[in-house]
Amino acid sequence: MTDIHVTVPKEKWAPVDRGAQDAEFIAAPSLTYWQDVRQRMWRNKPAMASLAFIILLILAAIFGPMLTHHTYYDQDLKLSNIPPIFEVYKTEPTDASAQYMFLNSGNFKLYEVAENGEILGLVRAKRKDLMKKQHIYVFGDAEVRVDYSQLPATLVDGDGNAIESIGYRWNQTNWFGTDSLGRDVLVRQLYGARISLTVAFVAAMVNFFIGVFYGGIAGYFGGNVDNVMMRIVEIIATIPLTLYVILMMVVFQSGFLSIIIAIGSVFWVDMARIVRGQMLSLKNQDYVAAAKTMGASTKRILTRHLLPNTMGPILVTLTLLIPSAIFIESFMSFIGLGVSVPMASWGTLTAEAVETLRAYPHQLFFPAAAISLTMFAFNFLGDGLRDALDPRLRK
Amino acid sequence: MDKQPHMRDDEVLMRVRDLKKHFQVSAGFFGQNPKFLKAVDGVDLDIRRGETLGLVGESGCGKSTLARTLIRLYSPTDGVIEFNGADLAKLKEKDLAPHRRDIQMIFQDPYASLNGRMNVRDLIAEPLEIAGIGDDKSRTARVHELLEVVGLNKDHANRFPHEFSGGQRQRIGIARAIALNPQLVICDEAISALDVSIQAQVVNMLEDLQKELGLTYLFITHDLSMVKHISDRIGVMYLGKLVEIAPNNALYDDPKHPYTRALLASIPIADPVEARKDNQDQMQGEIPSPIDMPSGCRFRTRCPLATDLCAAEEPELKELADNHKVACHYAE
Predict the structure, then answer these.
(1) Do the domain assignments include residue A237?
(2) Across-strand partners of A137?
(3) Do A294 and B127 touch (CB under 8 A)?
């Protein structure tokens, strides 16, 4: 092997600049904390869908009732128990225009509808044949009979032949149908959403402020402060909520106010316990000691170091407490301790629907769906938020 | 190899006298006969300006408690901590504030000592913010400067601690500790959690910083080879007391306390012939509980030289040679 001498001229040498050395480190752009949170949140599809659902629900609860002439208390007994979707039948008398109608198989009543599904009114029977179990309606020279000798009731013509339906139509007058007093279910549902969301909001606020503050203080100071504060929490936690609401109703009359106060004064104890537990373990961390050696105030240590690190469990607890507050309100209303008639909440709607469950199962569907979807949405959102707020999960 | 003191200045920066920190471990029945864990039980120590004072001892001997008491994370039970003309031991939290910036700490676990929710910029800027130095912009500039000083770069400022390796995190912790130009930096096992190769880097950086900024270090460790490398003087602690303190070379060449000899004997020897030799200085038994301490000399239960005198009377820390103090009846 021969030695190879390569001479590089002096002017070709130059110092490597620092940026080039570190190029491999700068693979991903640096993001601020909140940019990062937003990005991770956005990527979480179930959480975003839940957020959209909750926003939609809030908007609908606020503005929905303003956009319709229906009110939650207007009754129309002639149009009671109308389903949201029905089968439309057509009869064509030779001397008059075509008639569209649908049969409410629950109460054997016949309604006149427009072809698109708008309800025009109840049709009076010309005659009722109780022997044959038939109601006879006459449109011009055409005859239509509701035959309920065999259930479910069917629609037959004058000769006893079944009338063919022209298909299903969505109820254009009451999108979600009406209840047993002829009130619009959709509007009542939206009023129910107002109540449930109010309860959720109050529970969340009370939980967050009282629970976090109380638990934070107890956990951070520890010792006797903690002992006394936690015994108080235990006393509050042992009072049964139902009993509490009933006692409140004696004082405040209104069921809704009692529920709000009861949930507000009892629900924060879980949060306080969780925050306290977190504080107890976090306050001995070295970064808290480091903050103390810098001379950080108690307030700073709590707000900059301890609470942000407790945020995950706080959010998870919060999002579990919100649906359970909604559920408690619904439950209380369901057993008759909630809002008073004619005001509607999801719980009272459910209770009313259960009474007519056999004849009109669809009345239960909407409040039940509202309760479950809302609870799902809050749970998904909470999980998503917890993941997004934790920079350790950043990929 | 052994390092010479950077300054021949003998000015005492921190004077500690009879410092005690006892923890109550059980209240007893209705407050009677409470039991105390005497983690630090009468330590006398002078930390000189510009020096590196090493502090060694077994786990549980009270090194970390001493460090945390000196920096007033714990309130001392008794004793004096003289620093900048004030007695830190007696000051209330709010009166401590002006002294806080002069004493800073580098923690053992770089994973636990940085708040994972804050980015590097906020972590390093925090001491500046608390001390009310500068505005947001000038603090950011200072953070960038500090990052360069500890061998990181300013692009790291927006990142979070979990994105860094242990050594890099410890650098962030060091940048935070020196942000306020403190006089005394307490390194509590600051390198024990790092890989050996990284340890050397960090120790060299600490030495460079000391030269540049005129820092004084109290370097606490159980790693005897590292403490030999970095320290000017070394103190040896046993069960809450200082048993020997001497200049670096004196301690390694002529250990006077039997405990120090035992510690030095426990350093593994690379030469198998040497290692096989029976070593008389090897200790027996376990370290006694700091709740029920032996009478007299604390080391007597494990000491090859122990006599009745040791059980009856506790030896005082006496200066036997120049700057070499030992607490043993039989040291000469």
Answers:
(1) yes
(2) A144
(3) yes
CATH code for position B30:
3.40.50.300
State yes or no: pLDDT of B9 exceeds 60: no
Residues of A in contact with B31 (CB under 8 A): none
Tell me if A383 is assigned to some domain: yes
Query: Rounded to whole angstroms, how far apart are CA atoms A271 and A66?
Result: 37
* Interface mutation target, options B94, B126, B181, chain A, most CBs of A under 10 Å: B126
Task: Please tell me which residue of chain B has the smallest CA distance to A31.
Answer: B158
Least confident of A390-394, B59-63, B133-137: A390-394
Condensed to tens digits (0 to 9), the pLDDT of residues B41-99 reads 889 999 999 999 999 988 888 888 999 999 998 989 999 999 988 899 888 888 888 88
CB-based contact B159 A30, cutoff 8 Å: yes
Per the structure block, which two tokens stand in for A370? Answer: 């509202």
Contact B104, B186 (CB under 8 A): yes
Say which range, A14-28, A127-141, A210-224, B65-79, has the weakest mean pLDDT.
A14-28
Q: Are residues A189 and A166 in the same domain?
A: no
- Is A159 in CB contact (< 8 Å) with chain B? no
Same domain, A251 and A388: yes
Same domain, A210 and A166: no
Cα B162 from Cα A144, distance rounded (Å): 77
Q: Which helix (H) or strand (E) holds A196?
A: helix A185-206
Number of domains in chain A: 2
Helix, strand, coil distribution of chain B in percent, nearest 5: 35, 25, 40
Output A29 or B182, whichever has higher pLDDT.
Answer: B182
What is the pLDDT at residue A11? 83
Asked whether residue A158 falls in the same domain as residue A200, the answer is no
Among A63-72, B50-59, B141-150, B228-237, the range scoring the smallest mean pLDDT is A63-72
Q: Please check whether residue A198 lies inside any domain of the structure.
A: yes
- Residue B182's SS3 state is coil
Q: By residue range, what is the domain housing residue B190? A: 12-102+182-326
The answer to whether the CB of B12 falls within 8 A of the CB of B216 is no
The CATH number covering residue A154 comes to: 2.40.128
Interface test with A, best of B93, B109, B117, B139 (most A CBs within 10 A): B117
Of A286, A296, A394, Cβ closest to residue B130: A296
User: Helices A362-389 and A45-63 meet at what angle, rounded to 10?
Assistant: 130
Q: Is residue B143 part of a domain?
A: no
Q: What is the pLDDT of residues A44-76, one digit of tens each?
A: 899 999 999 999 999 999 998 888 888 888 888
Mean pLDDT of B283-289: 78
Domain coverage including residue A134 = 85-170
B86 lies within 8 A of chain A by CB: no
Q: What ipTM was estimated for this complex? A: 0.84
Of A139, A170, A201, the domain-final residue:
A170
Nearest to A202, CA basis, from A155, A281, A257, A128: A257
B32 vs B121, residue with greater confidence:
B121
Q: Does A222 touch chain B (CB under 8 A)?
A: no
With tokens 């620092």, the residue in question is A18
Q: What pLDDT, on the 0 to 100 scale, is given for residue A20? A: 53
pLDDT of B202 > 70? The answer is: yes
Interface mutation vs chain B, best among A25, A30, A39, most B CBs within 10 Å: A30
A248 falls within a domain: yes
